[in-house]
Amino acid sequence: MKSSRLGAWVALAIGAIYFLVPLIGTFEFSLRMRRDQYSFDAYAIVFADPRFQATLGYSVMMAILTIIVGIALVVPTAYWIELRMPKARPLVEFITLLPLVIPAIVIVFGYLHLYNSSSFLPFTANERSTDVLLVCSYVTLSLPYMYRSVDTGLRAVDVRTLTEAAESLGAGWTTILFKVIFPNVRSGILSGAFLTFAVVVGEFTMASLLDRPAFGPYLQLVGANRAYEPSALAIIAFIVTWASMGLIQIFARAPKGATAAADRTT
Amino acid sequence: MPFLEIESLQKSFGAQTVVHHFEMTIDQGEFITFLGPSGCGKTTILRMIAGFEIPSAGIIRIDGKDVTRFRPNQRNVGMVFQSYALFPNLTVAGNIGFALKVAKRSTAEIKSRVEEMLHLIKLPHLADRYPRQLSGGQQQRVALARALAGRPKVLLLDEPLSALDAKIRVSLRSEIRALQRQLGITSIFVTHDQEEALSISDRIVVLSEGRTAQIGTPFEIYNFPNNRFVASFIGTLSLLPALVVDARNGRLSVDGQDVVTNRPLNGAAVGDAVTVALRPEAITLQPQSENRNNLDAVVEEVGFLGSVIRIRARLNDAVLSLDMFNNPNQPPPELGARVALSFSQDDLLVLDAAVAAA
Ligand SMILES: Nc1ncnc2c1ncn2[C@@H]1O[C@H](COP(=O)(O)OP(=O)(O)OP(=O)(O)O)[C@@H](O)[C@H]1O
Ligand SMILES: [Mg+2]
Question: I need a labelling partner for A50 at 20 to 30 A (CA). Which of A39, B5, B173, B241 fits?
């Protein structure tokens, strides 16, 4: 008993060191811009850089659009599969996992091949339509996270019986979706949304190859040309990601009644 | 005029037919129970009436209107589920008012109807609770109120009490029945608990393997079962092989002993082998009197159940159960004792030969 507990602590310590040492090192380095003295100068420079604001703003915008499109695509799909085609679930799960297996660069080359300016669907012809293509590719990229979170949420409630109960009370499909399904898989949708946010905000390959001014390529650019600022950016990106994770925890743990109570006041 | 009419309803899943030619008419305000063993098709018939399953053949009419092809949300049929199925994101009041909200009634109307329903189910103080904050019995009462709030034409209940413990089951079933009487709503209640069915129904439909075995009042079903399935499914019944000695006068030979029945012989002729049946409460150990049958038997088992003592007695090649009331002044017979079983000529059922063979 005692030795196993000791083993657990040792494992935890090793994990923590593995994880924290580079982080602390990066943080410490990001503070050393001013000679002989710790300062937040690197952060000040980063925050003052108009490209930082522009690219982060752009990526946040893309992330929000991705989340909206992703929810609109995934929730009804997952719901329908749970309700009417449970046999198709393994297939759909496999498909949603593909983006984890196929490298982003392969996907994006495929896009460029299909949608270049001389193709019959020239998505890359102008910036707006390239943005559309980028959102679509982000939806694909975030599919594994979104689908899994929503599916877990759906399985936690008895979707089928709730649907039938609502139907027998006179509700149509839209009412069922918005009044019964969405509110009850809220925490699943939210955790999918935050994961998507974390994935999209730092994404490099797609944005870079589609030549869009996103935060990922900006990180890479700064990283290649500056000394201290990349560390500061890394820490900032890290905080953004962890804030997303923290929000998942908060929303996932909130008791159902409490989130539902919040629902009613809005 | 019948309120709910079901004509030769049939349902197959793939090659398997689970409901065969189900026919029934139900009057307004009647309380009907579907009773039968697991898998006999009770839920399937109920779901066809609710609109969740499309019949393979047949017609369902509610209040004169053919609703066979209607979607569930166009039928105005209330449904109560075994698992309650309350919306977890809505309060008790939100759940009860759901149908009215969907129907876009005014806030004031919804509020007053919800209050009325809360009073009917005797939970007026729980309007703002969430389902998970309620006990199972309370949740099911809320589910009942939710199903009734929109004034449905028919109320369907699929084993609504199965998830509850015994005490609440008994009190809630009489509450459901009282509420149903008060509102006069036509209801169909599914159960596989015969005591439940006997205690609350106007009429019982006994189902077996997707077919109707018998439809009748609890009194008829219990006392005059049409066939062996109904006879053995409802209550305890001892089955005995017998030979017809005199068809005209109902004289039979059971275990080599002569008995007489006043019940119909269902067309059996002299020399035919038939199955006869006896309820445990029909038999006494009191000494014989006029016009009663007597069978000599040996006591094989004595079970003390409290107010009732159940005794198993053996004939040469059959076993009979009988019940006697517990009486401190009259101890039950000893094991192995020879006793005379006495029962009325009216209580000896002769089961339909064809069905008995099945
Ligand atoms: N969707 C379905 N697909 C295939 N077979 C089904 C389906 N639903 C029901 N069945 C079959 O139909 C038969 C009747 O089922 P049903 O659920 O109506 O029984 P039940 O009388 O309600 O039983 P229980 O008391 O166990 O609830 C069963 O043999 C069942 O396997
Ligand atoms: Mg059933």
Answer: A39
